[in-house]
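User: For a reading group we're discussing how well predicted structures match intuition. Take Helix-turn-helix transcriptional regulator. Before you show the prediction, I'll give you the sequence so everyone sees exactly what went in.
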Amino acid sequence: MINQSLDFNEIKILKNTIYDEISVNFVYNLKKLIQLEGTQKQLSQKIGISEDLLSKYKSGSTFPTIETLIYISKIYKIKLNDLLYSKLKISDLESINAFKNSFQYIFREKYFVYFLVTNKLKEGTIQEGIIEFHDDDVCFNIIHENSIIKSFKGNYKTTDKLIFFELTSVKDGICYINMIKPNVNMKKYIGGIAMMLLPSQANSKPCCQKILFSKDKINREENYEEMSSILNFNTNDNTFGNMKISINDDEDAFDFITSLAST
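Assistant: Thanks. Here is the predicted 3D structure of Helix-turn-helix transcriptional regulator, as structure tokens, for the group to look at:
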């Protein structure tokens, strides 16, 4: 915590210390991004600056504007705080590289999503939501009677096998969604099943459940039995150390969605 009673010179020294710290980290991360892109020229073109200015950033003689920092953060899906205060790890670079390899184009702008209501009074009811992609940003709205009752915003990261969404809301907490990475040979992601960690209806308990993605709106009443089967965890009275979504689960959800599109 910063002492509120510092005098002018002490504040100036503290600011210089902060600048030195973030400058060292930023230069390190910038060099990693240059390696990722291949050349300084390619990176400078990607972030919209001259190669000469990028060289000054790299040497530490000049520091980027806040607009440039935010832009770098957005296009590489790096949190601004991590860009300035942390050194990128190999896992971070692998995630950036996976995203960079054209994967970002697989998502459509909008998906309807469905999951089971956790409120005991409405147990078994299927809730509807909408997830929208705006460039690198993701917005997840939970809908009830055509009104938004909860809204989460954030972004996603990719690994070789998974996609991880981290979405937040000042009012409703944090929502995590984890899905099997779709086949990048597909032109656009149609839908499938994912795992979601979302606070329960009263925001008092953590809740892990399945969530169904679909490019088209699904009639919940007409398709309740099949949707309920997809969204429920079927344990047959067995005890499990963990619950997983398998490739078969995802394929079953995909087959269900495509069967609706063909009817």
